[in-house]
Known about the structure:
mainly alpha, globular
Amino acid sequence: MSLMNRLSSLFEKAKIFYSHGDPSHNISHVERVMKNCSWLAENQTVRLDILLAAAILHDIVNLPKNHPERLQASAMAATKSKSILIECGFLENEIEDIGIVITEHSYSLGKKPSTIESKILQDADKLDALGAIGIMRVVTCGSQMRSNY
């Protein structure tokens, strides 16, 4: 299966995980992060299949900022992504590498990324938190957190 077919299939299967009502971590966020990843990867030696698959799945586990297990969300997303990646034709070594990128993308985890793909995804995700979109994400996140009290 071609790269575009695998990514397209993966994107379609992942949509369900982004329909939880959090507009700061919805499928539009994923699309913006993917676009940022592609832009940051230009003129770099990057495994684009690994990077874009990780971008699609990086937030499939979305815990509120005040959740006690929040720091484990990226590792939980990496674990949850395995069966989806298998369904979409990714190989075991690719799945392992994608899991590392998903886990290491988390800035709040405080772990230094070990690969260029992890660094790019971390930066691409942070870029989506800037500017007008970032302001809207902060407002929606804050609103949701207060609504739980």
